[in-house]
Amino acid sequence: MRITFPHLGSAYIPLEEMINGVGHDPVVPPPNNKSTLELGSRLSPEDVCLPFKIILGNMLQGIEAGAESVLMIGGCGPCRLGYYGEAQKVLLRKAGLDVGFLSLEPLGKLEGGTISFLRRVFGPTNPARLVNAARLAWAKLAVVEWLEVLALSTRPMEATKGTSTQVLNQWLNAVRAAQTMGRLREVCRLAADQFEAISKEKDGETHLRIGLVGEIYTVVEPFANRNIEEHLGNLGVEVVRTISLKRWMEDHVFKRLLGLSYVKELQKWAEGYLSGSVGGHGLESVARSIRLARFGLDGVIHILPLACMPEVIAQGILPKVSVDTGTPIMSLVVDEHSSEVGIATRLEAFVDLVERRHYASV
Ligand code: SF4
Description:
Number of domains: 3
Number of helices: 15
Mean pLDDT: 90
Number of strands: 8
Order of helices and strands: EHEHHEHEHHHHEHHEHHHEHEH
Structural class: alpha/beta
Bound molecules: iron/sulfur cluster
Helix content: 55-70%
Strand order of the largest sheet: 2-1-3-4
Distance between the termini: 60 Å
Strand content: 5-15%
C-alpha cells in the first residue's frame, strides 16, 4: 500500500521508517511550503485552525505523488483535533479523491476503527519484522530530536551563522538513510563530535535561554512557526523545548497504556492558575511556563494558531504568570497570513526586552 502522512517537523524520518519496515510504501509529501498551505486552504473552511489547512495540503501533495492511502491520527474533543481526520476525509472525497483513510484513534478507544486500522496496516507483517521496524523507528525519533536539541544549544554560540543548521541537516539525512541500530549509534558519535567543534568557535560566552510552549503542531513544525527556533538561535538565544513528538507519545500513549497519568504533575505546576485540562495543550502551556520561570529561564514564548480554543485560554492566563514570576512571556499567534519578517521583528523586540532585564539583574 502506498501511504502518505502529514508533516510534523522531522517526524517524517521515523514515520517513513515504520511504514517501510512493515512492508508498505511510504510517500513523503514535499516539505511544507507556500503551495502546501495554499492547496490546503483552498479546500478548508476559512476559519479552521492553521494546522488543519497545512495537514490537508500535505495529504493533497502526497496523493498527487501517488499515495493510495492517508495516515492520520484521530481522537475525541474537547478541541477540534479529534475531528480533523473525519473532516479531511469528507473534504478529500468531495474533491473527487477517493483514497483510503487510515485513522489512528486513541488507544483507550480500542474498538472498530482502531482495530481495522491495525489490521490493515500491520496485519500482513510478521511479528518479528514489526518489532524491528518499531525499534528502529523509535530510535530514529529519539536521535532526530536529540540532534535538534544539540543544534539549539550550539546555534547561539556559532561564529558563522547557519553552521549548526547545516550540520543538523547533514546528520538528519544520515539518520534517514541508516538501516541498522549500529549505524545510528555511529551517527550519534560522529554528529556529537561535529557539533562540539562548532560550539568551540565562540566558547565561554553566556547567552539568553528562552523556553517554547504552546500548541504542539505550531511549536514543532518550522513552517507553521516561520522558523522560530532558527531566528532565536541567530539572535544568540538558546531555545529550550518543552514539547516534542517523542514526549507526546510517552505521555499520551505509553503512560496511558501503563495506567499512569501525566496530567497530575501538570495540575500541580498550574495550581492557582488552571485546575485541569482544557483540551489540546492548554494546561501544558500554563504548567510548563510556570516551570520554566521557576527554573530561571530568561523568558517564555507561547505559540498558538489563531482561534485555537485551548491555547486562547492559556493566553488569557499567562500575563498573570508573567507578573507573578517576573518572567517575560510573549504569546505569538500564527495563521496563514503571518509573515516570516513580521515574526522576526516581534522576536527581536522580545529578545531585546529579555536581554535588558537579564543584564539589569546581574
Ligand atoms: S489544539 Fe488548537 S490548533 Fe490544535 S487542533 Fe485543537 S483547536 Fe486546532
